[in-house]
Amino acid sequence: MERLLASIKITVNDKLYIKDPESSDLGKRIVEQSIIMIHAIGFENFTFRKLGVKIKSNESSVYRYFESKQKLLLYLTSWYWGWLEYRLVFATNGIAEPDQKLAKAIEIVTQTTVNDTIFVHINEKLLNKIVINEFSKSYLTKEVDTKNKEGYFSIYKRLVSRMSEMIKAVDTQYDYPSSLASTILEGSLHQHFLKDHFSSLTDCHEDEQPTKYFSDLVFNRLNIQPHV
Hints:
This protein is mostly helical. It has a single domain, classed as Tetracycline Repressor, domain 2 (Orthogonal Bundle), CATH 1.10.357. The chain contains 11 helices and no strands. Helix 6 packs antiparallel against helix 9, helix 9 crosses helix 10 and helix 10 runs antiparallel to helix 11. The two termini are 27 Å apart.
């Protein structure tokens, strides 16, 4: 099993990079250190020049992998959604009951992130913080429709689609499965943001994860309680 898991590769749209960062040690260092730096100083203050200094390489070497820091952000967020999809599929694959499968899926996409030992050069906890704080900057732009046509958000959309299908499997009469699925994903990011920065605006704290809130929201709306 460990050998099988070690062979897993999260596939990201190849239009987001010039050279696949997973293909070399330098590329992996670029990804690893960019996550650490963006988390530490924020996306606005992050530059390839600063990254080059951090990895002890020329700024130009970073540009051989990514055209711009916007493309790098899209790569990182796409990788995150791909990783979350892999975890969701792996965790729910053996569950037969639709309500149990949906409950597990909600848990996977809303719980506090822990590091995955499979991808040693990526700190998933820090990447999750970046997605919480910076993901909206990748699509709240004038170019969003063009980026969407290029497939930059395909993994995120696919994850919403998976959640939507699980909702429909639980309640075939529910009219808004995609809206509910996207609300779970986006709402989870927002609740984690509020928990970290505006704690008085949420009931989701350290002892009350967003998972419980979204499980309550979804299953009460679908008028069904998941089997334990």
